[in-house]
Automatic annotation (TrEMBL):
Keywords: Aminotransferase, Pyridoxal phosphate, Transferase. This is Aminotransferase class I/classII large domain-containing protein. Belongs to the class-I pyridoxal-phosphate-dependent aminotransferase family. GO terms for molecular function: pyridoxal phosphate binding; transaminase activity. Gene3D superfamilies: Type I PLP-dependent aspartate aminotransferase-like (Major domain). Its cofactor is pyridoxal 5'-phosphate. It comes from Streptomyces natalensis ATCC 27448. It comes from the Bacteria. PANTHER family: ASPARTATE AMINOTRANSFERASE. The lineage of its organism: Bacteria, Bacillati, Actinomycetota, Actinomycetes, Kitasatosporales.
Length: 362
């Protein structure tokens, strides 16, 4: 999986590369609304730029994040559960380093994991052991958890397909945690982007003293040029993890600290409902265009997993092998916020198909 991602990155950076329809970036009409004064005011006019800008020592920010999770999830989070950071990649690096420093060289996981975490595991000598066949949303999903204490990593939602991990799966994992004392790390980078308008995330109700959750407001607002994310950790681990993160990564830029506050304020207020509606409108336009021959229903996020009516090799795209997924031949991940990519896909709706690709008439 890592080698495939490296090949895509190599082509993506070449002049004249195919249109990358599975990309990672955002683009929407609400950026200025979400940024507020940050959209037009230099950070130096909003904060003291002569000082280091520490996130973890910002008690107000940690309190806002805890309050947001209490409101959204109905769960008793406090500032003593919050480790803020400058983006999810840094927090993934801190988690992987913490595993090594605490002697954990073997972890279990529910496929798929984000490729950056797979990269860290490989580089740090951590053995990832699959604990399931298939992906959690699939009908044939077969979860096989070990009956000993370990660390389990899972991603919720399963981002490439916009599918949430079913409640029954999380209930099974929670009961296993209580039985074995195992830790669970939830990569919730795409959480709080539910298409049904609800805010509560099921993973918030895994045992809090045995669960770490990664949450990413930059994804929530699809404003990736600023960097902020946070971990929700057991209270007994907070100081240890926060100290490690600070010593690995240092302080953030003052602009990112201001954004972290702004993102928390937006999440405590109107939220990202307008953005989610925009994603759904783009999805409807693509479906109605006739450019797709099949698609998977979406529950969350801004990715669609679908099959084009034309060969997907016409585009630079990520198919199932990038996500440890079998089956679904011809399906690719489509970024529903990539306007040029969507326009390129919709333009294929009227392209005559080669005879080998035409549907057989009855």
């Amino acid at each position: 999986m890592l080698e495939w991602h490296e090949l895509v990155e190599a082509e993506r950076q070449q002049p004249g590369a195919r249109v990358f329809v599975s990309d990672y970036n955002g683009g929407h009409p609400f950026i200025e609304d979400y940024l507020g004064e940050l959209a037009h005011t230099a950070p130096g006019r909003l904060a003291d730029i002569s000082r280091y800008s520490g996130l973890d020592e910002d008690a107000s920010l940690r309190a806002k994040i805890a309050e947001m999770h209490r409101q959204y999830d109905g769960a008793a989070y406090t500032p003593r559960h919050v480790v803020p950071g400058g983006g999810s990649s840094g927090l993934l690096g801190t988690f992987a380093t913490w595993l090594v420093l605490t002697g954990r060289r073997r972890v279990h996981y529910v496929p798929p994991v984000y490729y950056k975490l797979a990269y860290l595991f490989r580089r740090m000598g951590i053995e990832p052991v699959p604990a399931a066949r298939g992906h959690a949303y699939q009908p044939h999903f077969d979860l096989r958890l070990p009956e000993q204490r370990t660390v389990l990593v899972l991603t919720d939602p399963v981002w490439y397909a916009g599918k949430r991990v079913p409640a029954t799966v999380l209930e099974q994992i929670g009961a296993w945690q209580e039985r074995t004392g195992s830790l669970v790390f939830v990569d919730g980078t795409f959480q709080y982007m539910r298409w049904d308008g609800q805010r509560r995330e099921r993973s918030a109700h895994l045992p809090r003293d045995k669960t770490l959750r990664l949450v990413c407001p930059t994804k929530y607002l699809s404003i990736h040029g600023y960097r902020c994310a946070h971990l929700l950790v057991p209270e007994r681990l907070r100081e240890e993890v926060a100290e490690l993160h600070m010593n690995l990564h240092g302080d953030v830029a003052v602009s990112d600290r201001l954004f972290a506050h702004r993102a928390a304020d937006v999440m405590l207020g109107e939220g990202n409902r307008a953005l989610v509606r925009h994603v759904r409108d783009n999805h409807r336009a693509l479906v109605d265009s006739g450019a797709l021959s099949a698609r998977m229903p979406v529950e969350a996020g801004f990715f669609l997993f679908a099959r084009l009516r034309v060969p997907h090799r016409w585009f630079l795209a990520l198919d199932g092998k990038y996500f440890e997924l079998d089956g679904h031949a011809g399906y690719i991940r489509i970024n529903l916020l990539n306007r040029p990519g969507l326009e390129a896909l919709m333009a294929t709706a009227d392209v005559p198909l080669p005879s080998a690709l035409r549907p057989v008439s009855a």
